[in-house]
Amino acid sequence: MITILQQHSAALLVALPLLFAFLTPLTAKLNAKLSKLVIFIGLALITLTAAIVSFDVFSTGTKLYVMGAELPSVAKPASLTIPVRIIFEIDAFSAFMVLIAALIAVVACIYSLRFIKESTSKYYSIFFLMLAGMFGLLSTGDLFNLFVFIEVLSLASAGLIAFRRDEVESVEAAYKYLIISSLASLMILFAIGILYGQYGLLNIAALAKALQFSFVDIAALALLVSALAMKAGSVPMHFWVPDAYSRAPAAITALLVVASQACLYALFRISFTLFGAFPLIQLIAWAIIILGLLSMFVGVTMALPQKDIKRLMAYHAISQTGYMLLGVGLGLLASNSAMAPFGLKAMEGGIFHIINHAMYKSLLFLTAGAIIYTTGKRNLDELSGLAKKMPFTAIFFIIGAAAIAGLPPTNGFASKLLIYESAYMFNPLFSIIAMIVSVLTLVSFVKVFCAAFLGPELKELADVKEVPKSMLLAMLLLAFFVLLFGLFPSFVVKTIVEPAANALLNQATYIGAVL
Question: What is the pLDDT of residues 90-109, one digit of tens each?
Fold first, then answer.
């Protein structure tokens, strides 16, 4: 069993979620308990597959998987130098993102056991479809399939945002998300069409080697960067994020954070791997850096006046995306220059922040979901004195708040410190902006803690009690990793972050693995 999983693990990353997306509602019609067992087995197999893929890549290098049987040697033209199959190519950066998606999927599933009470088979069916789109996006080495998996991810995400159809705000948020996703997808498809019309290629590695950087190629690049930044929730294309994040079920909001990061992955893959040899690569780098600085500042300033607890956290998610864009953008700016060592450290900080943000932001959204679950309220003006009634949720909130503000000994401090130090070497203003944003973030979450957990107990909240154990377990797992990564950051950086950064920088290795 393990051997089969290992041999076909890249394909199974997508095939297993698709299989269980269809099995879940079918078994639910036969027996509810059987359906829950199928969900458990599916999640276990998907997690095991993600672990096997990641271990293989980090221990042996880039993993290729070619769909379909190989061409017989007698059928291969001697001049054939381009890939003629759909190829999955998973390097250390892809494997790093796969690990994040698998971790948050497990936590979201545990949290949903009691959090989701209605239409569970439909919920988990779309949940698995969302995973299929996410893993496919992170694994494919083909531009058109990247578009296909983004579409699968977008449709599944919209379905889960609107899962509670009786809430008008949820349907509105899903509608807004679909409009923005459709616009971004059209831009991506148009860019792919431009490149295919020029070179007759869809494979990323083959295209990267063939690109001549003509005017139409640059137009395709602009379309791809704009669309993927929009999907990642970067300012000024962030307007779908507050509605989608605040109205989706809490566990799905955690997955939406990772879905946005998967689109960030695609943005970085396009910038470094496909257009890495572009003579004016600094223009892309500066665009990413400016998007990062704007996202940091606009996100945090928009969060400060919010009263809806999940909407406030949604704006902070936009702000934290800015740190990732800044760090990786500086790495792209410094590639092949005297500042390359500082650029590498900035990249490591940005990539480290991706996994850290996935953990502490998911933790914060789960604590917000716990508050809404027990009180039925999301307005901070209607909450008070919850610390005595929900002590574990209060502790988990403190850990998540400390991490997002960059306080030691949390993982947020470790990754932000790398970004502060390396960004300072490029321009002290970058570090100053990043630190000011962290201070404002701390102010915002102190306000939330004081409003929701401190103060007098309200009569209307007299019956409030702690959330079920499965929800606490999900939050505990994330809090554990937030502190673990904060206490041992060097080990994490050396083991998974540094290989991911090097893989992204090394365009020749990605191309050479295919060609």
Answer: 999 999 999 999 999 999 99
